[in-house]
Amino acid sequence: MSTSAPKIKGLAHVGLNVSDPVDAARWYCDILGMKKIVTGYDSHHEAAVFLSFGEKHHDIVLIKAKNAHPVDIGDVGMHHAAFSVQGGLDALRRLYGRLLKHNVEVFKIADHAVGLGIYFFDPDGNKLEFFHDMYPDEKGREGQKILREKGAPTIPVELEPIY
């Protein structure tokens, strides 16, 4: 009989409280390129919209918030959700161009030593990030080594968008 703890593989999905899940789903589909899978209703939520990037049944669920007032930045709660970008730096630059084209507020572009991140808000003020991992090895060992050496920096950088 094994006494070791079960292994957690990773993040299955993110649930975000939003003021209007149906409207928010349109934004997530238009801006992030997600696909709406289903809108569900149950005793806990007025509405919940399940969205996918196309490889899983759902990556994000948008849930009707009880209170339409967003928390202030820095309050207790989720800081941000980051989305891994495939296709290298040019793909990240194209996503940056897409954000700007749709007048999405980009509030930070940062070099974190292990990757580059573009930070922006959804319509409800949830902080999101497009992340280009520069050390995507299977177990993350090289990236972990870099983080230990560099101390997880957040260095502002300029990035030229591709439209």
Short summary:
This protein is of the alpha+beta class.
Offer a few descriptive terms.
163 residues, alpha+beta, five-stranded mixed beta sheet, 22% helix
Descriptive overview:
With 163 residues, the chain is an alpha+beta fold. The protein has helices spanning 21-32, 88-101, 141-150, and strands spanning 14-18, 35-40, 48-52, 60-64, 81-84, 106-111, 115-121, 127-133, 155-156. It is built from three helices and nine strands. The chain is globular, with a radius of gyration of 17 Å. The longest helix has 14 residues, at 88-101. It has a five-stranded mixed β-sheet, with helices on one face. Strands 1-4-3-2 form a four-stranded mixed β-sheet, covered by helices on one side.
